[in-house]
UniProtKB/TrEMBL annotation:
Pathway info: Cofactor biosynthesis; nicotinate biosynthesis; nicotinate from nicotinamide: step 1/1
Protein name (database record): nicotinamidase
The entry's keywords: Hydrolase, Metal-binding, Pyridine nucleotide biosynthesis
PANTHER family linked to this entry: LD05707P, PYRAZINAMIDASE/NICOTINAMIDASE
Domain Isochorismatase-like: residue ranges: 9-216
Gene3D superfamilies, sorted: Isochorismatase-like (3.40.50.850)
Enzyme Commission (EC) number: 3.5.1.19
Domain of life: Bacteria
The family this protein is said to belong to: Belongs to the isochorismatase family.
A Pfam family per the record: Isochorismatase
Amino acid sequence: MTQFDAERTALLVIDMQPDFMPGGALPVQGAAGHNERLVGPVRDLMDAGLFPVQVATQDWHPAGHVSFASTHPGRDIFERIEVNGDDQTLWPDHCVQGTKAAELHPDLPLHRLAAVVRKGMDPQADSYSGFRNNWGPDGRRAPTGLAGYLHERGIDSVVCCGLARDVCVKWTAEDAVAAGLRSLLVWDLTWPVDAGNDQATRAELEAETVEIVTSDALPELAAR
């Protein structure tokens, strides 16, 4: 694997919010009861000084969002339905705007963030990716503005970490490639909603030319 120019690489910290952590509405697997297993390693990477540009994404849904099972009477959590012509998993109510569970985790060094991109704000469209919404009623995936921001900053590569590996991290890493960016995913600094998806997730990422790395390799890969 070739080195990346750290000065032209952004760290993307994806959806590090209490609702996706143990005790939240939609927790990841593998860290039951131990938020520090999630927050600590990401905090250390943010503090390491490898990446001058660091951006967080934040799920930020209005109440009654189309992705909530509670919005669809008679439907169950994790049931799949069609929304806007595409497959939609129905989730528990999560990351509702203005709630504590939707805030970025306070133990992260939030002062290091150059920007926070909120997503999932359209009540009629989900948004797994930090770059684009899922398909909306108009049949398009509306951009969040993240790609334009990164290109304006002279960024040509991104390093993705956070939650959840098999959903929002995956979609963000793949959309980074579509936006013309080199995309690296730090496997040990992501955690899945369903660990049973890991093999398929890895294969799908690699098929989209996302490079899978580990956190201990980053200092050697970062050319400065």
